Amino acid sequence: MAAKHFVNDPTLLVNSALHALTLTNPSVALDAENKIVYRRPGHASQVSIISVGEVVMNLVLEPSSVKDYSPHPLQVLYLHHRAPSRFADVWMSRVDTEKGILITVMNYTGDVLNFGMAVEKAKAAGLKVEMLITGALAATGASLENVYKLGKLTAENIVSVGASLDHVHVPGRAPPNPNSEESLAYEEVEIGMGIHNEPGSGRAKVDLPELVKRMLTQLLDSKDKDRAFLNVNSNEIVLLVNNLGGVSVLELGGITAEVVGQLERSPTYNIKPVRILAGTYMTSLNGLGFSISLLNVVNTNLGGPSMLQLLDAPTEATGWAAPIRKETWEAKSTSTRTDSAGVEEDIKPSGLKLDPEICKIALTGGLQRLIAAEPDVTRFDTVVGDGDCGIGLKRGAESVLSIISNENFSGDAVVDLARIVQVVENTMDGTSGALYAIFLNSLLAALRENASAGQATPEVWGKALQSASEALSKYTPAKPGDRTLVDALHPFVETLNKTGDIKKAAEASRKGAEGTKGMKASLGRTVYIGGTGFEQVPDPGAWGLSEFFLGLAGLGDSDYELV
Description:
Layout: H1 10-24, E1 28-31, E2 36-39, E3 48-53, E4 74-79, H2 84-91, E5 101-105, H3 109-124, E6 129-131, H4 144-156, E7 158-164, E8 189-191, E9 202-204, H5 208-220, E10 237-243, H6 249-265, E11 275-279, E12 289-296, H7 307-312, H8 326-332, H9 356-372, H10 374-384, H11 389-406, H12 413-427, H13 430-449, H14 458-472, H15 486-499, H16 502-514, H17 525-529, H18 540-552
Parallel strand pairs: 3-4, 3-5, 5-6, 10-11
Antiparallel strand pairs: 1-2, 2-4, 7-8, 7-12, 8-9, 10-12
GO cellular component, one term: cytosol
InterPro entries: DhaK_dom, DhaL_dom, DhaL_dom_sf, Dihydroxyacetone_Kinase
Function: Catalyzes both the phosphorylation of dihydroxyacetone and of glyceraldehyde.
């Protein structure tokens, strides 16, 4: 459980969060004493919707309905910290009571009973009040009865289930005992955990696909008498994937893709949602979990906007993701790209010849040596970087090795290098991936310019490498002495141009890489990571490149000298 917070005073946290709502949405105001956020006056009369609860929900203002209706159907958000009997007194002055009041309450016994009491007290005072869960219909000017009916109909056609990797931690409370029965093991997930850490239906050690499969089974298995209270039989289904507060945006995207994939691919379900909503809608502090909700889109029989129209309606609610237009959703199912984007182009032969077998042997040696060096490169990068350099180089090398092992070289230097460049671009990412892609593409262009030579001699390679190095310098200020891969690249290119001897060039490259030990970095991640240890290890990028050059030249550890 994550027990660290930026604000550890719960009272200050709640007050600040409520105040922030008014800062991000000028249409609402705050009654700080009573912890009420309410819509400022000056709008058309409509049914007033009041939301109450213990946790500030992101949906501070519910989504509006269609066309020119008010974008603010929610009149009051009441964070109950006082007796609910007091509630009726404080909100009556904050809302328009002409068309009636609908109070939305989470389905907890205490909330239902206590705010039910407040509702009855308001009725006794002559107000027209109902309590349920509803949506945007109020903004259309619909009657309280119709708004209530829509809320009830929606509740009857929706199923939800959640899962969490850990319990919620309340700011200001002591960290929990990690060895207690309440704590989840590292690989465990609890299905059905409540937003107040109520126990779920069970715990399991499962990956995301299996977890989603179990959750959908709980939602959709019509044979499960305990849970099959809704038959999802509508031709139109809305999916909502909700972040309980502690899931990263990136991970929520992965979860959403998995849920949609299983709904659409499963022959049992074959559900293609007409709307997919994913975001942080209803939270539980730093809850490290998510919930899946499915809504049957049914005819409201109330006239006016349909369920989908209400969901698609524009809104100024700060917590509601900007609605996608109906036309955009419908175009999704009919419009696809038909061009050939991403299809590899055939590279025209240049006429610059090389020996396919010699080239294959040399490249294989370089790639295999680079792959074998991954543990050392990773160790060096763990000291002076973020530890991913070795894996990135290994991934690129393995991909290129796979290609040259399974495909024959054409014998044309440009054609064969172009194939390798495509692999590097597709498999190597990050800064090093970009540097290699720039350099190799520049090398490709330089070789094509020298195609008239007819044969790819060491001299031709040397000139092309020099040209590629100059092109690379346009995009990075790195030069020898900056503790980067250039410390290994530059001496290799210089020596090959001077001597035409690849073995001497590889030895010079290794000497340059060795020289980065103790060298203070001027560029790259090492500069701002700081710390010590750079005196004992070389630059990981330079070391990896020198390993490749040594293998390319067919040199073993005992075949070269650094002096």
